[in-house]
């Protein structure tokens, strides 16, 4: 019975196609009234279907003026490193290069590569070495940064980094299968990044 | 759809993002200084038992553990 619903609805003529829908951050989370009217004409005894967005809480509104501080949530699987901390800027090691995030940054999802993340608060700078992860920058100047492993630079042992770098460079030269090459390449990249972090 | 976007080398080699991310994390953990390294490796220990089911009944479970002697 419901298979015919879309055909019946488009036949009723007053239903506008959804091609020109606004972004979900702009449309308030109310149900489309044109659709509901067409539905009632065709199937008056059935409730209009619910859509996933009607179950969602409305998104936090974007302030009309750019906030002065960036709110950072930096989480690891086993701990919440920073939770709702208000800072001036964070620099994240995105795959596209070091990205500086200020309040009012355009909403972005960035994949992180192994590298240094620094949190700037006034003259205070806190640096972490991040193994990999993602950074979600929202329109309301909230940054959610998630990483699998993040350590302060002081906790890294330079001699082990050098040893690892030598070991993986050697493995890369002698790797046979694609998978071994990929693993060796990852080893070289991570250790080079740690090396650069310690010396930079 | 742009399916000719450049894929990262690990995906071209058949690895998933989770595998890549876990390898990176393990490499970083192995390069930590002493008390932190011990804590990190301790934190990442796993202990679980798997049993296959046949005919609606569990067979003998296989135990996989990082804590010795258990």
TrEMBL record, chain A:
InterPro entries reported for this sequence: ATP_synth_F1_dsu/esu, ATP_synth_F1_dsu/esu_N, ATPsynth_dsu/esu_N
Family recorded in the similarity comment: Belongs to the ATPase epsilon chain family.
Region (Disordered): 42-62
Keywords: ATP synthesis, CF(1), Hydrogen ion transport, Ion transport, Membrane, Mitochondrion, Mitochondrion inner membrane, Transit peptide, Transport
Protein name per Swiss-Prot or TrEMBL: ATP synthase subunit delta', mitochondrial
Domain ATP synthase F1 complex delta/epsilon subunit N-terminal: 70-142
Superkingdom in the source lineage: Eukaryota
Subcellular location: Mitochondrion inner membrane
Naturally occurring in which organism (per UniProt): Brassica carinata
Reported function: Mitochondrial membrane ATP synthase (F(1)F(0) ATP synthase or Complex V) produces ATP from ADP in the presence of a proton gradient across the membrane which is generated by electron transport complexes of the respiratory chain. F-type ATPases consist of two structural domains, F(1) - containing the extramembraneous catalytic core, and F(0) - containing the membrane proton channel, linked together by a central stalk and a peripheral stalk. During catalysis, ATP turnover in the catalytic domain of F(1) is coupled via a rotary mechanism of the central stalk subunits to proton translocation.
Subunit comment: F-type ATPases have 2 components, CF(1) - the catalytic core - and CF(0) - the membrane proton channel. CF(1) has five subunits: alpha(3), beta(3), gamma(1), delta(1), epsilon(1). CF(0) has three main subunits: a, b and c.
Entry's Gene Ontology cellular component terms: mitochondrial inner membrane; proton-transporting ATP synthase complex
Keyword Mitochondrion: yes
Gene Ontology MF term list: proton-transporting ATP synthase activity, rotational mechanism
Automatic annotation (TrEMBL), chain B:
MF (Gene Ontology): proton-transporting ATP synthase activity, rotational mechanism
Compartment annotation: Mitochondrion inner membrane
Keywords attached to this entry: ATP synthesis, CF(1), Hydrogen ion transport, Ion transport, Membrane, Mitochondrion, Mitochondrion inner membrane, Transport
Biological processes, Gene Ontology terms: proton motive force-driven mitochondrial ATP synthesis
One cellular component term from this protein's GO annotations in UniProt: proton-transporting ATP synthase complex
Main location: mitochondrion
Keyword Acetylation belongs to the record: no
Gene3D superfamilies the record matches: ATP synthase, F1 complex, epsilon subunit superfamily, mitochondrial (1.10.1620.20)
Xref: Pfam families: ATP-synt_Eps (PF04627)
Cross-referenced SUPFAM superfamilies: Epsilon subunit of mitochondrial F1F0-ATP synthase
Chain's role: Mitochondrial membrane ATP synthase (F(1)F(0) ATP synthase or Complex V) produces ATP from ADP in the presence of a proton gradient across the membrane which is generated by electron transport complexes of the respiratory chain. F-type ATPases consist of two structural domains, F(1) - containing the extramembraneous catalytic core, and F(0) - containing the membrane proton channel, linked together by a central stalk and a peripheral stalk. During catalysis, ATP synthesis in the catalytic domain of F(1) is coupled via a rotary mechanism of the central stalk subunits to proton translocation.
Subunit and partners: F-type ATPases have 2 components, CF(1) - the catalytic core - and CF(0) - the membrane proton channel. CF(1) has five subunits: alpha(3), beta(3), gamma(1), delta(1), epsilon(1). CF(0) has three main subunits: a, b and c.
Family: Belongs to the eukaryotic ATPase epsilon family.
Protein name (Swiss-Prot/TrEMBL): ATP synthase subunit epsilon, mitochondrial
Source species taxonomy: Eukaryota, Viridiplantae, Streptophyta, Embryophyta, Tracheophyta
């Amino acid at each position: 019975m419901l298979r015919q619903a879309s055909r019946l609805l488009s036949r009723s003529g007053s239903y506008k196609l959804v091609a020109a829908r606004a972004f979900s951050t702009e449309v308030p989370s109310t149900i489309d009234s044109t659709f509901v009217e067409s539905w009632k004409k065709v199937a008056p005894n059935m409730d209009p279907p619910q859509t996933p967005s009607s179950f969602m809480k409305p998104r936090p509104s974007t302030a009309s003026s750019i906030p002065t501080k960036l709110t950072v949530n930096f989480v690891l699987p086993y701990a919440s490193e920073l939770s709702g901390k208000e800072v001036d800027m964070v620099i994240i090691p995105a795959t596209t290069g070091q990205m500086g995030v200020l309040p009012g940054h355009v909403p972005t999802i960035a994949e992180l590569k192994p590298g240094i993340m620094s949190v700037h608060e006034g003259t205070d700078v806190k640096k972490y070495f991040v193994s990999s992860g993602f950074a979600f920058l929202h329109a309301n100047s909230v940054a959610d940064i998630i990483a699998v492993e993040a350590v302060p630079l002081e906790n890294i042992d330079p001699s082990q980094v050098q040893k690892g770098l030598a070991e993986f460079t050697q493995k890369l030269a002698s790797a046979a299968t694609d998978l071994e090459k990929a693993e060796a390449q990852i080893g070289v990249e991570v250790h080079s990044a740690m090396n650069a972090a310690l010396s930079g | 759809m742009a399916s000719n976007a450049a894929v990262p080398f690990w995906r071209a080699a058949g690895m998933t993002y989770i595998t890549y991310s876990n390898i990176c994390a393990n490499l970083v953990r192995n390069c930590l200084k002493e008390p932190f390294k011990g804590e990190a490796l301790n934190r990442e220990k796993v202990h679980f038992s798997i049993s296959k089911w046949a005919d609606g009944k569990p067979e003998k479970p296989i135990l996989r553990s990082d804590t010795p002697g258990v």
